[in-house]
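Note to self: keep these together.
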Amino acid sequence: MSSGTPIPVRSPLPSALSGTTAVLVGGSSGIGLAAGVLLRSVGARVVLVGRDPDRLKAAVSRVRSASPDEDPDDAVLAVPGDSGDEQILAEAFDRAGHVDHVLVTAGGISGAGPLTELSADDIRTTFNSRLQAVFAAARAAATRLPAGGSLTFSSGILVVRPVPAMAAPLSVGGAVETLTRALAVELAPARLRVNTVRFGRIDTPLLRSLPGLDSDDAIAAAGSAAPLGRFGTAEEAAASALFLMANNYITGQIITVDGGETLV
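Structure:
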């Protein structure tokens, strides 16, 4: 796994991702889908992994529409299945043939509730549903990515600004951030990079699934109290992932994209 040569030097601009291939775990919706659109718009190949076949089909169509040129058949691929299943991820890598970057945004908000009201099964499900996807992606990427390849995870700002009744999901987010640093050290000899984006409130289907946030007016009203007067867009959030993919001298970092929410 170790490499005797330094990590390659290349342009850190997103345009340098043209011709690379990215596997997006959780790429059928929200930030993952937005990343797919941005990647395809700069000429990258995209492999979307998601559980819902219908949503995945729609996502492929959306990503293809962003193509700068006529699409070859393998420019956008879809692999339906559980993101925590290592066989599914192996299939995604095999179908791609060559993968340079992996982004993991899969996982919803599960396990919320007062600690004393959570069952052991609730806690176990919360950890398994999110951490398993992260570990599965890391294990698949560790032996398949080339020097200069990257692995990017996601967490949220409540990890550093906790609220009541969120102990289980926030502990998972904290674990992801710790794993990021551990893997950055472990995989550095292979010249692989590992980072996480810590997101604030981003206007995605997941945010809109929360009570009272299911309309444009509700999103605008809630976002008006944020430091910049609104919530972030999925595209703004996804752009941070492309930044981390493109810059070969960033590893082991937790990048916060929250419009300043952790400052107030």
